[in-house]
Amino acid sequence: MKLIDIPPYRREGANYDEKGHILVRKLVEKMRSKGQLEGVEIDIDESYPTDHSGKNRDEEILAYLSVGIIKRIREISEMGKYDAIVTSGPIEPGFFAGRMISKIPVAFCLHSAVHVASLIGDRFMIIQSHDPGALIERHFVQLYGLGHKLASVRSISSSPPHISGFVRQYNREEGIKVPELKKIVEDVRDQCVKAIEEDRVDTIIVGGPYFEVLEDEIRRALDEAGYSEIQLICMFSAAVQIAKAMVNMKLMQAPRAYPSDSLKAKPRFR
Predict the structure, then answer these.
(1) Per the domain annotation, does 260 fall within a domain?
(2) Residue-wise pLDDT tens digits, 172-218
(3) How far apart are CA 266 and CA 260, in angstroms?
(4) pTM (two decimals)
(5) 131 lies in a domain?
(6) CATH number of the domain encompassing residue 239
(7) Is 267 part of any domain?
(8) Dihedral sign, Cα of residue 50, residue 56, residue 58, residue 60
(9) What does the alpha-carbon distance between residue 126 and residue 134 come to, in Å, rounded to a whole number?
(10) Rounded CA gap, 33 and 35, in Å?
């Protein structure tokens, strides 16, 4: 089975190995080491430069990113090279249009993660890196019909560029040696504990590659704090597993749910 990931951030002129895509590579390596990718090959798309320099990390950047994501979903789905598409960004640029135009299964990471969380529990929270992204995610979860199970979306004070800069230094074999990384994990743990105690959540969704790379460290921190029973879901891992299931079951997004003008069996009303 061959999948391709479309990372959300691809700045014009950016060096691939020095930017956020290296975090997705780390995620793929982590999943492979855990035996989660047997029989699966994942490429990481490098082909859609999207100039979002100077844009705020809110609805503005979501609009800019959506254009590039939609273009690449159409192009990739028509190649005949891949079995499915996954995404690795938690704010879901191009979600509805992408699901409409893709000719192959496409699994967005937030959408996948909240459905997995809904399968195993009643109340989940999402840990995010910044407040505008947290609000975007809440809006999307409501659109997905699972707003009643989303207890909270919490963020930490560090900015995403600050976080990703340190996370790129993380080595799973060596563990956390950078003090700033340890502080990030502690901040994430503290927000998760608040959600467990104050919001009564049973499941935590880790959002964004910068946090997902630190999944093992976050899991260990929660276990040491006495919360080993709380389930932890990484968005990218959930998207990969959902994509695999769709391919194996020979399913894709239903045309009636994401219709175009070419829909043949049009409903009488909406």
Answers:
(1) no
(2) 666 677 777 888 899 999 999 999 999 999 999 998 888 898 899 99
(3) 10
(4) 0.89
(5) yes
(6) 3.40.50.12500
(7) no
(8) negative
(9) 8
(10) 6
